[in-house]
Write a structure and sequence with these properties.
Length: 434
Amino acid sequence: MTSKKTIGIAVLGLGNVGSEVVRILTENASDFEARVGVPVEIRGIAVRRIDGDRGVDPALLTDNPAALVDRDDVDIVVEVLGGIEVPRKLILAALEKGKSVVTANKALLAEYTGELADAAEKSRADLYFEAAVAGAIPVVRPLMQSLAGDRVNKVAGIVNGTTNFILSAMDETGADYAETLAEAGRLGYAEADPTADVEGYDAASKAAILASIAFHTRVTAGDVYREGISKITSADLEMARSLDCTIKLLALCERITTPNGQDRISARVYPALVPLDHPLATVNGAFNAIVVEAEAAGRLMFYGQGAGGAPTASAVLGDLVMAARNKFYGGRGPLESKYAKLKIAPMGDITTRYYVNMQVADRPGVLATVAAEFANHDVSISTVRQQGSGDGACLVVVTHLASDSALSKTVSALEKMDVVTSVSSVLRLEGTTV
C-alpha cells in the first residue's frame, strides 16, 4: 500500500464527457474516497481556451496540458480531448512517467493501442479504456477479464448510436436518409460533420479495439473492412420488412478457420439485414448492443446507452476507480494480451448471405438469365421476388451462404448484362446460417 494521502487527477478536456466526469467526481467525492480508500482530488483541468464560465473552479483550468500531465502531484491522467496526435503525445508522456491513464479515445486506440500498451507495460502503469467502446456498456472489461479463461469466437454489435438512430427512424417513419440525417442533427444525435458516424469510421475504430481484445491480436482501424449507411434507402428498409428483417450498421469481429485449418480473424463494419427475431433487431434509437459468443460461456449480450456525456463518464469513472485503487494498494490493471498474433482474413474469404436488388427488363426469360449468372459464380439463390412491371420492374434475390469474392464477381457480371438496367442495392444478411 502506498503512503500517499490523496490520488491526484488531471482531466484533459472539458466537453460533454469531461464536464460530467468533473461534476460526478466533485459531487460524490466522499463516495469515491470510500471506494478507493483514499481521497481522489482533481489537480487541474486542461482546456483549449480559458474563457467564460466553465462551471468549475477557475483555478483548476489550464491551457497547458503538457505541464499539467508533468506535475508531480498528478497520479492519473483522464484523457477526454478527442483527436489523435495531441492526446497521443500527452498519454505517452504520462505513461512514461509511470502515471496511469484513463481514456475514452477510440480513434487513438484503434491506431496506437500497441504503442500505448508497450509504454504502459514498460513503466508498469495502467492503461484503461472501457469508455472507448459503447459508452456506459461494460464490454471491454468482461472481454479482458471475465472471459480471459474462455475462447471468444465472435463479437457482433451495434456500436454507433447516430447510425442506429437514423436507421431506426427511417424504418419507423419511411423517411429517406437525407431527411432523417437532418433530423438527427437537429436532435443532437449527429455532428455538424457526420462523416465519421455515417460512413462507419467510428464503428470501425471500435471494431478494431474489440477484435484486438477478443482475439489476443493487435488490430488497427486500417484492418477493418468498412461501409457506411449513406446509400441505404427507404425502399431497402421496406424490402427488408417484407423479408422479416430490418437493417442495422453492424460491427462484426469473428474467428475464422480456413479450409486448411489455419486460424484467421475478420473485423468488418457494414449495414446488413438482420432477422426480426435476432436480439440486435430490437435495438433501436441511439442505443447500442454487443453480442459476444464464447465456447464455454455461450452467447452474452450487453445493451445500453452507447454515447452521451453522462453514460460515457460512467465508464470513465469506473476505470478511474480501478486505476486509483491500484495506485493506492499497489496493484496492476490487466495487461495487453497479444500472444495469438492471428492474421486478418481477406474480405473476399468472408462468407455470409446477400440481398441483391436490381432493376431489370420486363420480358420473358429474365429471371432464368439472371439466375444462371448467379450459378456461374457458385452463388446459390435462396429466394427471388419480382415487383413492378415495365420500366419499374425490380428483381430481389436473397442468396444462401457465399463468399464475398464470389458475390462481387456476380454483381460485376450482372451490371454488364443487357437485361439488368442497374444493381441498385447489395446488402449482406447476418444472423442466419443457411
